């Protein structure tokens, strides 16, 4: 997904700076940041799953499962 790739590129450029990332319902940002954090060793898979589960049920949206399973994120 191009949007996820773009998110990864932007996050890589940010480095150690603190930034505020958001989306309308926190679904996309939790999924994107979870994938980014896992792939860069910032978070464990369980931490990413915990964040997503606290906001929404990824299992209700098969397209998100398909996108995030490569990162070990299954909600």
Describe, in plain words, how this protein is organized in 3D.
The structure is a single chain. The chain is mainly α and 75 residues long. It has one domain (2-7, 24-71). It contains four helices and no strands. It has helices spanning 2-14, 27-39, 45-55, 62-68. Helix 2 (27-39) runs antiparallel to helix 3.
Task: Outline the secondary-structure elements.
Layout: H1 2-14, H2 27-39, H3 45-55, H4 62-68
Helix pairs in contact: 2-3
Q: What keywords describe this structure?
A:
globular; single chain; mainly alpha; 0% strand; 75 residues; 4 helices
Short synopsis of the structure:
With 75 residues, the chain is mostly helical.
Radius of gyration, taken over Cα atoms and rounded to an integer in Å: 12 Å
How are helices and strands ordered from N to C? Answer: HHHH
User: Tell me about the biggest sheet?
Assistant: none
Total of domains: 1
Number of helices: 4
- Helix content bin: 55-70%
Cα separation of the termini: 19 Å
Give the integer mean of the pLDDT values.
93
| Low-confidence runs | none
**Structural class assignment:** mainly alpha
Based on DSSP secondary structure assignment, what is the total number of beta strands? 0
> Any idea what the shape is?
globular
Q: Estimate what percentage of residues fall within beta strands.
A: under 5%
